[in-house]
Amino acid sequence: MSVQALSLLACERSIRTTARERTGQSAQVRREEELIRRAQEFDQEALGWLYELFYPKLYNYAYLQLGSVQQAEDLASEVLLRVLESLKGYRFRGVPLSAWVFRIARNYLIDLNRRRQRRPQVSLYEGIPSAEDSPHAAAERAIAQSELRLALTKLTEEQRQVIILKFVECMDNASVARVLGRSQGAVKSLQHRALVSLRKILSSQEVE
To answer: Domain 3-207 adopts which CATH fold?
Structure first.
């Protein structure tokens, strides 16, 4: 099976995984609520939890769209700083904290892309190293990330957001809707169109 086919299979598996995880969402929200209250009081353990939970998620979110290790690290760090600065005013709305965090991340990414359009840059591909990977596994991972990122650039901005938030970050429709400022029905429609387009794009890449 090709790398592209494996990428699509991972998306389809994520749909089922997300459905199972949804049953435990209420308990997760309650746990987050307690930890956020502690973080709002500058409890060091709770602040550490926020960093450990969201830094790798924000990094992956940024890397798939920017293709630069340095820019992904900068985005993850800057968004976490904004989260901490705004945390005191955060209020619970019955959805996971990730919806609020990734809304901040998306707004930051939109601003970043606007600045990049005004100041053209040469984009260089940088792989994500892992100490646990063998050279062969590291090469396969780099190829998969590169091909998926190339395919994602051919989707609309909202379609790309839905794919990454749902199948990379494993967020549910309600959370994705909160990030995008759209209805859950609109998110489902975007997801369907995005997956259809992504399959066509990946299939064409196989032929090339």
So the answer is: Arc Repressor Mutant, subunit A (1.10.10)
What are the residue boundaries of the structural domains of the chain, listed by start?
Answer: 3-207
Q: Are 83 and 50 in contact (CB under 8 A)?
A: yes
* Cα 154 → chain centroid: 17
- Distant-in-sequence, close-in-space partners of 38: CB < 8 Å, separation ≥ 6: 45, 46
Radius of gyration for the alpha carbons in the chain, expressed in angstroms and rounded: 18
Q: What is the pLDDT of residues 77-125, one digit of tens each?
A: 999 999 999 998 888 777 788 999 999 999 999 998 888 766 544 333 3
pTM for the whole structure: 0.72
**The pLDDT of residue 149 is above 50:** yes
- Cα gap 166→187, rounded to integer Å: 10
| CA 71 – CA 172 distance, rounded (Å) | 27
